[in-house]
Design brief:
single chain, alpha+beta, 3-stranded antiparallel beta sheet, about 45% helix
């Protein structure tokens, strides 16, 4: 089981596998969106997958590509929300937050 990322909604922390940087941008976007969806649904319920599918209809293809390339042990780097999300260089990631209805202030004040 390879973990590309994880989320602790109570602490506003997302953990990303450093090997994710070696993947195509479309796969990185999938993992980032997947983890941010956990701020709305901290599980893998039907509602979680419904919002994920609404925001990224092709998430399953992106996940398959990631899983196919997973040939390493899980290593991770923890990023606090302010570093991982709001200081990101990815315009797509900022769009994901806006699409989820998460403001910078609300996200960074999440406990």
């Amino acid at each position: 089981d390879t973990r590309w990322g994880s989320c602790l909604p109570q602490k506003a922390i997302i953990t990303l596998n450093r090997h994710l940087l070696e993947m195509p941008v479309s796969c990185i976007e999938y993992v980032v969106l997947h983890e941010f969806c956990h701020f709305l649904y901290p599980n893998h319920s039907k509602d979680f997958y419904a919002i994920l599918t609404t925001l990224m209809p092709d998430w399953q293809q992106r996940k398959k590509l990631l899983d196919k390339n997973a040939q390493f042990e899980f290593e991770h780097t923890v990023y606090e929300c302010k570093r991982a999300f709001f200081k990101t260089r990815s315009v797509q990631s900022m769009g994901i937050a806006q699409g989820l209805g998460i403001s910078q202030q609300a996200f960074c004040n999440a406990k």
